[in-house]
Amino acid sequence: MPLAPLLVIAGVLGLAIGSFLNVVIHRVPRDESLVHPGSHCPNCGHTIRNRHNVPVLGWLLLRGRCADCNTPISARYPLVEAGTAVLFVAVAARFGWSWELPGYLYLAAIAIALALIDLDVMRLPNKIVLPSYPVAVALLVPAALLTGDPGALLRGAVAAVLLYLLYRLLGAWGMGGGDVKLAPLLGFYLGWLGWGAVAIGAFAGFLLGGLAGAVLLLTRSAGRKSRIPFGPYMLAGAFLAVFAAVPISDWYGTLLSASAY
């Protein structure tokens, strides 16, 4: 089937999901309901009108301010919506019309929510991480059966255990409990793609986290004992592997072959 319609669908879906993720990012850390009350201004409490709830466009129409009390509305809201749409389009381009596509779109959605929540409150909520396990199984098991690749599930399960053990070991050196709970989920998704994706995703997470920590230390934005959220770097590393594990593995293999002569 043509890819272009899928990309359009993914983009529109990403905008809508991104709008919902803004609610998730704001309310889950506060243990608030995602359903009641409806979207409202946190300053004056007025309900947001439907026309102002249109992703990205609503914020532009309001010029970044509440229609009732004129309080500034953070630019992060439209950025989350647009960013989710871009990531959904990228994932759709990566997997095309495939049975595993819904599973990786779900991973993209929770990745955005978890990364921003971790940056905000330095916590990866169980309310998002733990339910994602049965969701991943429900989405990827049928995909494996329909594509005739049950080995991907076994590989994902083994990768999940390995990353859990790795992060559990690192927990003794300060790795957060939320990171330990997230690691097997990422391992399951990366293992589905192959061992190269597992290795690259895990390594990239540590590399990106280390580089970010070094920058914070050099700019004196954090000290040696400061807590730094690691979830965003785990997730960024995982998606680097999702999109680029094959070319990175090929490049590394070429280096090894060249060094052998």
Automatic annotation (TrEMBL):
The keyword Transmembrane helix applies. Residues 12-95 form the Prepilin peptidase A24 N-terminal domain. It is found in: Cell inner membrane; Cell membrane. The keyword Nuclease does not apply. It catalyses: Typically cleaves a -Gly-|-Phe- bond to release an N-terminal, basic peptide of 5-8 residues from type IV prepilin, and then N-methylates the new N-terminal amino group, the methyl donor being S-adenosyl-L-methionine. Its main location: membrane. It holds the Pfam family A24_N_bact. Its EC number is 2.1.1.-, 3.4.23.43. The chain crosses the membrane at residues 6-25, 104-122, 128-146, 153-173, 193-218, 230-248. It is a multi-pass membrane protein. Residues 106-211 form the Prepilin type IV endopeptidase peptidase domain. Keywords: Cell inner membrane, Cell membrane, Hydrolase, Membrane, Methyltransferase, Multifunctional enzyme, Protease, Transferase, Transmembrane, Transmembrane helix. Plays an essential role in type IV pili and type II pseudopili formation by proteolytically removing the leader sequence from substrate proteins and subsequently monomethylating the alpha-amino group of the newly exposed N-terminal phenylalanine. Belongs to the peptidase A24 family. This is Prepilin leader peptidase/N-methyltransferase. It comes from Actinoplanes palleronii. The gene is pilD.
